[in-house]
Amino acid sequence: MRILLFLLAVAGLLLGGCGVYRSQLPVAATYPAEPQYKMQSAGHWQVLASDVADRIEKALGDRDDLLTIPLYLRSPSSRPFSVGFYRLLTSELVSRGLQVSLNKEKDNVNVDYDVYVVHHSARYQRPPIGTFTAIAAGVSAARGLESIAEWIPAAIGAGVLADLASGAVARPSDKEVVISVSMAYNNRYVVHSSSVYYINDPDWELYMGPDDSGTYVQEFEPMPVRVVNR
Predict the structure, then answer these.
(1) In degrees to the nearest 10, what's the CA dihedral of 139, 145, 150, 154?
(2) Contact 175, 216 (CB under 8 A)
(3) Hey, which of 12, 19, 220, 227 has its CA 20 to 30 A from 199?
(4) Stretch 161-188: mean pLDDT, rounded?
(5) What is the 3-state secondary structure (H, E, C) of 51-93?
């Protein structure tokens, strides 16, 4: 007890003399826990395609000069996601009454998307109790919700309670995908949106081929220290 009181007294004197804690390096801090959606099926690609089509439709509604100009989409690669998302997005746009060109024309509004996979080494995370990620309610339905307390009523309202009860809860993974969608005309962006999702680790080749552009993030474990007695 005396040692503890002595250490507290010394700490008080040090803090009192300095006024504030000073360090040569910034103190590390973490971000608040936030949900991140996880792509686990082609149905989730459909959710994303619908949300992107809504954005494009709204942007065109704000630009009368573009309403009569057809859209042109291209698939950036032959990977399953690129091909599937191309077809899903085309269907969503056509179903909204928007013009979509089969082939490149002299005057088009170009719609492009890129996929970028991030590979992490094995990570360990202890999420707070009650923190979980799921795409269930959809990309657009959950946008703007700032806490789990807001997310739960929204999820229940969207009929997600049954999904949660049946085990539709996602876990963090070591693979993430960045999906960027843009709409441009006359060398100017009209829409540009990027989102980050978890994906199931074995599924990364659905999004990116082994030779495609991507990034590998290596997180090294500390080297063991051996103590030698002399």
Answers:
(1) -30
(2) no
(3) 220
(4) 75
(5) HHHHHHHHHHHCCHHHCCCCEEECCCCCCHHHHHHHHHHHHHH
In residues, how long is the chain?
A: 230
| Backbone torsions φ then ψ of 224, nearest 5 degrees | -65, 145
- List CB contacts of 56: < 8 A, sequence separation 6 or more: 71, 93, 98, 111, 183, 191
Residue 116 burial (C-beta neighbours within 10 Å; 0-12, 13-18, 19+): middle
Distance CA 98, CA 66 (A): 11
Q: Residue 133 and residue 163: Cα distance in Å, rounded?
A: 12
The owner of tokens 């004197």 is 13
What is the C-alpha end-to-end distance of the chain, expressed in Å? 34
Mean pLDDT in residue range 65-85:
91
Residue 9 predicted with pLDDT over 50: yes
Q: CA 132 to CA 169: how far, in whole Å?
A: 7
Cβ density class 59-95: b for 16+ within 10 Å, e for less: ebeeeeebeebebbbebebebebbebbbebbbebbee
- Band (pLDDT 50/70/90 cuts) for residue 134 is very low
Helix (H, G, I), strand (E, B) or coil at 180: strand
Domain boundaries, the chain: 34-217
